[in-house]
Amino acid sequence: MCLVNPLGEFRGENETQEYFMKEYLPLYLANRENSLAERRAHINAISRYFRLPHHPRHLDVGCAMGSMLEEAKAAGWDPVGVETSEFAARYAAEHTGCPVYAGTLLKAALPSESFDVVTLMDVIEHVPNPSELIGEIYRLLRPGGVVFIVTPNFASFFVWLYGPKAYGVWPDQHVVYFQPSTMAKLLRKAGFARIIAGSRDFYGDNLRRLLRRNGAQADVEIKAEFGAQTSLGKLRQLANRALMHVPVGDKLLAFGQKL
Length: 259
Fold this sequence. Notes:
Layout: E1 2-3, H1 17-30, H2 32-49, E2 57-61, H3 67-74, E3 78-83, H4 86-96, E4 100-102, H5 105-108, E5 115-121, H6 130-140, E6 141-152, H7 157-162, E7 176-177, H8 180-190, E8 193-200, H9 204-210, H10 218-225, H11 231-243, E9 251-257
Parallel strand pairs: 2-3, 2-5, 3-4, 5-6
Antiparallel strand pairs: 1-7, 6-9, 8-9
Helix pairs in contact: 2-3, 6-8, 9-10
């Protein structure tokens, strides 16, 4: 685990309604289909690695606009969200029909052993005390329950290549970074067993920089080229299988099971 030091002007996520309406929501809507496809891939990965109940009770921590809730519901899960932004929580509830708690997970004070799956994607890097968060998730999971985490990988190829200038390294927004070994240590310390930690994908902006492509549309073009139905998309799928074992991708994926 790597802590940002000094923290400086850390602002975390800008939770104002103006930020979500003017900045976050337009980007979300423009990238909606890619976001939903990524969530479907996450659900498939969780189901592939772990045996779940027929209709698993699911909690998505930091659910934002509700992409994971939408896909979990479509998969037959029973999803609930927690989101610190009141605007995003309201938006997610209205557009998915799922219950969404506005506030932090700790303040939600949900009942112990009430979920089969807890997911948190691009969340833990914003949390000053990740051990406390993971401990709370452990409390909320039923025996056999699974936690699934996505966060920037501080051991990625592009962090090695570009250092703090790599896309995904944002000390003005993040307070902590993990690599697979330190994430596994965090989960093990909280009590989780059968821990899997790997990686997947490279951020489009990092690939754009490596390929020396410029312009506002370069990142969009790269994402389209690596879409699921393209030849490069099929190569991406093969590469992601390898990146779970050789974890140098930009996104760290971690699973842990409560026995």
